Records
---
Amino acid sequence: MDDIQIKKSSTVYDAIVVGSGAGGGMAGYVLAHAGLKVLMLEAGPYFDPAKDSMQLKWPYESPRRGAGTTRYFGDFDAAYGGWEIDGEPYTTKDNTEFHWFRSRMMGGRTNHWGRISLRMGPDDFKGHHIDGLTDDWPISYEDVKPFYDKVDRMIGVYGTVEGLPNEPDGIFLPPPKPRLNELYIKKGAAKAGVKVIAGRGSVLTEALPGNKDRGACFFCGQCGRSCKVYGDFSSSSCLVIPAIKTGNLKLIPNAMVREVLTDNNGLATGVSYVSKDDMQEYQVKANIVILGASAGESARLLLNSKSAQHPNGLANSSGVVGHYIHDSTGSSAGGWIPELMDRKRYNEDGVGSVHIYGPWVYDNKKLNFPRGYHIEFGGGLHMPGYGFSGGIQNMNGVVPGRDGKMKEAGGFGASLKDDYRRFYGTGFGMAGRGTAIARYDNYCEIDPNVVDKWGIPVLRFHYKWSDYEINQAKHMQDTFQEIMHNMGGAIYGPPAGKETNYGLEAPGMIIHEVGTVRMGDDPKKSALNKYCQAHDCKNLFVVDAAPFVQQGDKNATWTILALSMRTAEYILSQRKKTNV
Amino acid sequence: MNRRDSLKALGIGTLSAGVLLEACKPKDNKLAEDNKGAAPTADEAGRQPFEIERDKKLNAEKFFTDHEMATITVLGDIIIPKDDRSGGASDAKVPDFIEFIVKDMPEHQTPMRGGLRWLDVQCLQRYGHTFVDASSSQQIEMVTEIAYPKKAKPGMEQGVSFFNRMRDLTASGFYTSKIGIQDLGYMGNAPGKWDGVPADVLKQYNIKDPWGNKWD
Ligand SMILES: Cc1cc2nc3c(=O)[nH]c(=O)nc-3n(C[C@H](O)[C@H](O)[C@H](O)COP(=O)(O)OP(=O)(O)OC[C@H]3O[C@@H](n4cnc5c(N)ncnc54)[C@H](O)[C@@H]3O)c2cc1C
Ligand code: SF4
């Protein structure tokens, strides 16, 4: 007998969902609750925050004191994965740069995301009229609004009703109040004329009406570790586990899908996968295949699913699959506030998402970049970790000591020890996240020469920023300087300059990559219709961030959830009409 | 589930908030520093097999020689000494942390090893002894030469870089230990209700409302 076999299952599921993150989780949840028999395939292990989270651990429970050696966002962070995964490479082309953060676990990257939960606005869906630069989505804010509303009610999000034109309000739980440092930021921003409002995040600052399975937040500030009482949104805790409980959804963890299988008519019949548990090859069948493997992975799956009917890859007769990939821009700054030295101690952990937020409310017509950005702020008496008060020699020589005299920078001994206490909790930071224009010339494709450890061809990225993004980053830096200047004696460095593209992070670094399998009305210019259904294959759907035509400055996840719910409901309505 | 229920789900629901705060202070938790010798391994729940393996392997290795460890210990206590509020770096097992972290982050290895040797050679030339064998006033004299980047004399730059690193690692190790966290007065990691900056603190900074919209 051969060591490796292809095991074919004869069961035909109503639907197969590939991936269990925001997109896959929501589709699986809706379909399983509607009674469909769903098979969910997830490349990573089972993950239940209630058992597997590192919540409430102290820094000394980590030998590296929380440093990010094996987990980029820190030793207690929930992500299984990161920028590089052993045996699962990706490449770049033409000396361009792209960084791809992947989590391989049930719930995907929603176990440790920042929980910043924003709706895209009317101008984000239909932005062509602003500057002629981008294609409009085939749907408008009004089409998505009912689903945003349902997601708000079902999952919970805090925020304040503001009535801003392109920053739609949701159905909000009360937001957490700002920390002391954040009050100083608000002061500086107000003086600088920069709008700052309460944050918007999917954390249950109060019990979620009608939900008995999730606990209310108890303010440990550790959402990134995932929440043991399900006080924040993770797809694992809020979607996949409840879906499994219906008895209608079967999850196979450690199942890495290779390709979508199609028949002679070009319709999807199921998928093939390699099991990481027994290293065997499997084929499973369903009437509908739904990809929620993340924008990058779903494009990779389609491009790897070539057949006589789909020679260019599945759903790719238009050739757009992989193209138009775009990640948010990002640039940041920070400093510290001497006035807060020797501050009184109290528990200021708050929630693990943003307490205050700066929406974009300005007119780009007067600026040298076409679309806006928002600002995420933070600072407070946080849990110390690796890197605590690093570089104190740059701080303790610039302010007077207790005796009112200037001190020599650096030092050691009792007086240094006193400085550590004095400076604790004085820091703050701010990060801009902006719209990057979706461009055909930025793309991912299959690298013809490289496979991963299961022999699956890998993605190769080609991504360049344009002057629009660089000018936007400069504006962020200038704005940060103005805010910090007005904060009342804050100490901070000069703005990031031209040589660093004004601190503009490399593509991918903000982890909002979207747009690789775009939707549209014209099958020649898009891969999916407005319900995220493939033009070329009507029983194939994509429910992650791949269908985005143009992302606003808003982080992607709330929109992924709303669109996935919309697609799942469309599937249900079409099944009633027996169209799929 | 409301907040009380969610605390119950964690097995701490029956306690009042005050008791909770008390219970969650560092002193009641099992301490890394209590595990004598090898650096602690994190509790394995939720950790990936490769991480558990890696920690085991690192803990089984020894990087610094006994002489280097002795030097690190003396330096650590010079940087963060015992005072009337808390113990010093060695009380918080900072040297063990530094031994672990240079294995975990190999980029520290050469600068640390080389810096320690640089220090010994300086001391041998000046005092005829290595750093640990020099008198404590000589040790302080030597450290003073490299602890103040702006006024350090030419020729001391490498010592300054080493000392900056040593100071940072000592602070990382100390303020993430139970002793250090207590010293700092960090009061979080304790379930509770965040209701904004306390009124007395707002008052202290002349802030009129918890949203920071009005200031004096
Ligand atoms: C640190 C961090 C902070 C973030 N903060 C925010 C934020 O504040 N707000 C926000 O909106 N967004 C944020 N994001 C982004 C957010 O996490 C993503 O937008 C979201 O998780 C995407 O959901 P998804 O379902 O498309 O993909 P993912 O969450 O990545 O899930 C995809 C799943 O599919 C699985 N998979 C992939 N390929 C295969 C295959 N071939 N076979 C089987 N399974 C497969 C993966 O293992 C994974 O579990 C953040 C991300 C990170 C990393
Ligand atoms: S801040 Fe709240 S929601 Fe986030 S992990 Fe802590 S308790 Fe859970």
---
Amino acid sequence: MTQLALVIDLNVCVGCHACVTSCKEWNTSGEAGPMTDKNPYGADPSGTFFNRVQTFEVGEFPCTETVHFPKSCLHCEDPPCVPVCPTGASYKRAEDGIVLVDYDKCIGCKYCSWACPYGARELDEKQKVMKKCTLCVDRIYDESLPESERKPACVMSCPTSARLFGDIHDPESEVSVAIREHGGYQLMPEWGTNPSNHYLPRRKTRIKIHEDELERVDNPLSKEERKRHVGPSEGPSIDDMASW
Amino acid sequence: MHPAFSVIFLTTLIGAGQGLFLALYTSQVYSLFKLLPTQHMGLFYAVGALLAVLLLVAGLVASFFHLGHPERAWRAASQWRTSWLSREVIVLPVAMLFIALWGAAHYHDLTRPLFQAPGGTEVDLTLILGFIATIAAFALFICTGMIYASLKFLQEWHSPLTIINFILLGSASGFLTATTLSALLDTSLTHFYAGWALLFTVAGLVFRGASLIRNKRLRPKSDLRSAIGVRHTNMAQKAQGAMGGSFNTREFFHGKRDSFVRSIKYIFIVLAFVIPAALIIASFYRPGYLLPLLAFGIQYVGLIAERWYFFAEARHPQNLYYQSIA
Ligand code: SF4
Ligand code: SF4
């Protein structure tokens, strides 16, 4: 079976919001109609988004680290939002595991948004139907696009390549390898939702260098050594420095 | 969670409607077994059933205000295999129908025994219709309760107490409605209903109190660490991806001060339980419809406060992602 998903590398994300704007641009211009904004330039702006980038500060000053955290529907393998829907508008596709909402069936009861622990669903205030990330289902199968562009808009736009897209059920896919080799993890595993999207943790590269690796104890060229041999032909020879 | 008045009215009104029917049918069954003086109650039951149906209809109308697309509401009956909301949508009209049929059968005096059950009990049409309506009323309580109790990460709701309380509180206000109606129409059943109403009110206080204590002791299973997957004891949100609000900040936060929420708790304990219980006890000594009516009105206001608190009390794990804007 196929399960399409995103893998988001928190080590690389710089919090530029390119994925947010690109997602909004693609999906607000699509066949499903606009993702409504209310007061976009007013005092209290509010709008529908599939994807948001949040920022967290970890640690206490001065030892702080900024974590940018892109957040969208995780296309859970056991999505709690789907069985609760009374109309069948929310469904999970068998062929690729994408969780979708049929906007023509949704009655806007909001029950599914209560049933998603991640707050990944947003009610469109104007169309009064539930909206969420579609993994750009209208892009990734579009054969009029060159193959390299059949990816979600957010993945295309990320300037740091923090977002990967692929089938997490194929062990050799780019996403599976990234999850396996870079410690990919799921959000809130305690609820058994089994999210398909994974996150790659922050990673630090540190080399361990010991004191004696920086300074040779028996260095014949050290100041002290050279002071001991003052006469001609007494100084260190090549044999002192090479190991042959 | 943000308490929505449409849902508050839906759950309290249909609860009272179901409870009212259960009260009427209880007295019918009691008189069948000669535990109550048998007398001709046909018209009273018909009026009561009409009121119960009106309460259910009012609840249904309130629920439509919750929907973004009420014109498509019929679709909500399709997913009964998995969704408790869908099951409620089916059971509610079924309960209405059988309560209405039961009332109509009483109105037309269709009480000729159809057959004798083993033990000599005479079964007539009203008994059968009422029995089906009783099952539907209980099924409706269970569906309504399970809509909330089935959401496991809303830990405050994920408990059998949720369903028990829907049953007890709905029954209390329904039996109190029956008491008032009976006192108004001057039947001999007033004390019978009042006794049950008192019992349900006290039991409601016990079980609602139990759920308050349980919820106070709850430890949230999720925290920011599992929410974003970073292990540190000191983390703070600096941006939530939007400067203004979003659906996530409107739907899942009650937006009131803690002191306000706490005061609602005390208000509902007094209005839904303490005062009505005292008034019911007083009504045993001072007959008339005034005290039961007052008790019903005060309890209904109390139940609205109770339901408001029920929603406000539930902390959704998604709130972890919406702690602060800056
Ligand atoms: S992240 Fe939320 S909306 Fe998306 S599949 Fe999981 S439970 Fe459903
Ligand atoms: S809001 Fe729409 S998609 Fe969500 S549960 Fe209700 S009908 Fe289903």
